[in-house]
Design brief:
mainly alpha, rod-shaped
């Protein structure tokens, strides 16, 4: 076995036909869809007004 056969050849990890902008946009969209909504801050949540009584 020669020295060139024992070394692994570097492989390209680029995807042909996909721009970096599209790749980043798809990652951002996947992150936004898979992240659960934040819990509202209890201090900023407004309580509903009490219903008025009929006269």
């Amino acid at each position: 076995m020669s020295a060139t056969e024992s070394k692994a050849q570097p492989q390209s990890c680029a995807v042909a036909g996909v721009s970096m902008r599209d790749l980043l946009a798809s990652c951002a969209a996947a992150s936004a869809v898979s992240t659960p909504p934040r819990v509202p801050d209890p201090q900023t949540v407004q309580r509903p007004a009490e219903p008025r009584k009929a006269a």
